[in-house]
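Q: My labmate handed me this sequence with no annotations at all. I'd like to see what the chain might look like in three dimensions before we decide whether it's worth expressing. Could you predict it?
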Amino acid sequence: MDIHTIDINFFKPGSIASFLIETRDGPFLIETGPDTTFKNLTASLNRLGYAVKDIKNVFVSHIHLDHAGAAWHFAEAGATIHVHGNGARHMADPSKLIASAKQIYKEDMDRLWGQIRPVPADRTHATTDGETVNIGGVSVQVMETPGHASHHNVYRIDNVMFTGDIGGVRIKSGPVFAPTPPPDINVEVWRESIKKIRQLKPSTLYLTHFGMFNDVTEHLERLEDMLLQWTDWIGSRLKQGKQDEIIIKEFEVYFKGLIQQINGDEGLFERYELADPAYMNAPGLIRYWRKFRAGK
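A: Here is what I predict for the chain of 296 residues:
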């Protein structure tokens, strides 16, 4: 088994990855990225000796557009799309997904994500927690890991885990961030998912944002610490009675400062903004506070 990390070059290199796994029965893919980078992904597959039609199985960690927006291309070419059961119905009918995304991205929707088409129900496999999918001698274990989204999976192969967004965002020498966009953020549930990963003691994490990391224990500690730090930061400002718009603007400054403390490279900040936009993190945690911790 060979694992290839593919940089799909979402406006800049090093912000979104797709992973090609080669088996004795051909390759499969974990994460597709959005439609806007499908040409880049196709070109990378070609360089590795494959065409889109050669990909018969695609696993997506969840249905957010930066992870699964191009899945319909592979379904139309004959692939089975493996996705959490809560997400499968929204891939078959993406109208609610599109409407929700448009509320966030507004006029940037098409520029960022391109086309979004349905994935027919007969081209999806709604996964269940703990099941194993065997492809060409490679066993892919499904791990349900909510907290970032109710439809989130981590995929385990041997002692390696592909963590989607639940495993955080980490780009080069930058910090480990917990992407917290609306509407599904639940901090307590997220911590349980981190615990679930930690208990299995993987040797390697493959992050969609971005790449392979072997310092698993330290990485997960940094992720959980940052999740709690952000949660407390938002909560303190809500308790002060600050308006959402003010909190979001202040969070953008705070977000950039965290990156500059570790690496002052402006280009690194730009990659984080593509992978994990600051203006989305604050609203997700504001919603979490009002839904789960009102009055605390």
